[in-house]
Batch of 4 targets.
Target 1
Amino acid sequence: MSATVKLDFIKVTKPRPLVAHVQLARFWKEYVAVFDNMRAWYGDVRAVVLSSSLPKVFCAGIDFEDLLDLKNSPSSDPARTAVALRRHVLSFQAAISSPERCPVPVIAAIHGVAYGLAVDIIAGCDIRYAASDTTFSIKEVDVGLAPDIGTLARLRHISSNASLGAELAYTARTFSAEEAFRLGVVSRVVEGGMDEVVRESLALAEEVARKSPIAVTGTKHLLMHARDHSVGENLEYTATWNAAMLQTEDILKAVRAARSKGREEVSFEPLPMDIVPSASKSDAKPKPKL
């Protein structure tokens, strides 16, 4: 790490070269700070694994006390209450969207209970692995509200069955890791629980981290652009992006390594800290305690 950052609810380690492991507890204001400052705080990170620190729970959803607190408005005026609630929701959305702004791939290692907010969290990650013991639920309708932190915005982009996704959102019924795989929400089901899915996710992160960081961060950036733009717009943008990025020395290094058929190890230089500027920043970030 480039600095010692003390966090109350999130643990961040670097268990393998160039790979960060972010473990959640109660967290969301620290969550945005960690992802928006990943490289500044933790040095040369080229892939991130996101998991829980709790063996049987990835995330059980929003805290009921927090939910009830939202009803305690400081104003009796409905419009002013709405302004305050909107600001709160937007801040929460920005926090849970922070893995998208992180310039390196974020891999969610999901296990145990993954309800409500858990689905918002994993939907904002690049890759999702689930342990076979995972139980999911888009839970919000059961507590009287529509999902508002990212699940509905992203579900059609990360799933392959819009009808099933709508069914799960309307009913809040629980579904298994295998059904999540059939839905297309996760790309792999790992037999076991927390330890097994974290191990496989770290192995994947390590593989990604060995690639050219110019290529990987560019791929993430262009995938995000493609999601939000037409095919034609993305092709034109990609041409402009790669007009600069094709000049990297990483291409020559990668070609030499490929021609050596594994005999030659390749080492890529780290990226500058702000190779892909964040699209937005949340006002909810605490200052790190160094």
Target 2
Amino acid sequence: MHEDYNVFVKRVHHKYGIDLSLYKQKQMMRRTRSFYERYGFLSYEDFFMLGLTVDGEMEKRFIDRITINVSEFYRNRERWMDLRRLVLPELVAQNEALTIWSAACSTGEEAYTLRTLFSDQPKRDIKIIATDIDELVLLKAKRATYSSKSLRELLPHEVTEYFNNEGDNYTVKDRYRKSVTFSKHDLLNDRYMKGVHLITCRNVLIYFTEEAKDRILKRFVSSLTDGGFLFVGSTEQIFSPERYGLETYGSFIYRKTPLHEQ
């Protein structure tokens, strides 16, 4: 089975540019195997040659599956409140204009959550750049329409403030959408932007190997301005953050040490 999987990994990398070897093997094998078994395939070989190669819709569903898209507004709300309390006042006090990167943004809930955190700063120049490897989820993010399930961490007055409600759908109001832009980006292969004041990348690093995680963290730090912040998920504590040029600033919040160079 492992040899069959290894050949499959090479083929996926060649065809789609997605390197599955940089994801934790047991988790990714379980994820991919359950996907192809659902469609009646018996091996990775058959799945690739008789499924992905000939069925465009299956390709899209497969890429959506392996890129792990799970998100909601204010997921782990207490951590977002920590970000609001500890980080936002400093960012606003020290910068007239802010560049924020929502990395691996999935369907956009995290990016729009970031924008709502600044809802009491209407005149601040805030640019939120949200990226993901999966073009299908980016399309949904741009539409900015969600079900009530995605809003379950929000308080009633926040739902009213941030969304227009039409039946079972909730669409982010224009004033929170206009400063958020979405684009495709592969954390493992593409160039990273510079001059970012805050990066959020939550509940994604846990799926990568230690080697890949190390590479991503180093590149995040190089993207941050001196004193910039990195906000990760609640199962993604960075041990020995000083080796990346980071210092712990709060729960799952890290600050780039001033004058640190990668």
Target 3
Amino acid sequence: MDDERELAEFARRWSEAELRGDVAALDELLTDDFTAVGPQGFVLDKKQWIDRYASGALIHDAFTWEEVTVRRHGRAAVAVGVQGQQSVYDGRDADGHFRVTQMIVADGAQWKLAAVHLSPTGGRTPLND
């Protein structure tokens, strides 16, 4: 499988794992030193990111990953896309529409997500248009 198809398959697996809150899949898809910067500037490590699902605090009714462009840089890639979600976090509405930057790295024969940064677009999600 070539890199372009592998990265497309990685994106599909990641967005499915996020939608389902699949802790085991996310544990496999994220690097051990994964870092996320949330839409309001907070920072989460891998354990904190996954614990949102493990605790049941974050539940997605819908999750999309669209308008994605990927640029390869050696054994790494930068993906920029639009994430839409219909979600509940800790009992509160967490619907959103975000411009997302992902740093994806080759870890042996697998691609893994090393970092993600979310910025709110202020727009409606494509899920509720």
Target 4
Amino acid sequence: MTTISDLALEVRSKNAGPFWVTMELFMRDADGYRAVSFVDERIVAELYRVDPGTIQIFRIPSLNIVKISFPRPVSQGSLRDRDMHAGQHHVPLALLAVRGD
């Protein structure tokens, strides 16, 4: 089984302000970029339990990059915030199996 992280140079997540998370898929090449084209709002919503209507996906084919943003489940630094910098949010996406395998 091939995962997104197997095809990527880097998969990372970070804060996009205190209320949003951004995840970035830096794919190795155009083939890897095409392989992750199945990642859409529905898949992200299922992985992160967020409303698909709040998810923003930006695709940059010339750089083989996919950027995904959605509201944080709790605001940064709040009492229930378990990942202050959103540095671990990318893991479920990175471990997602690429279709066709």
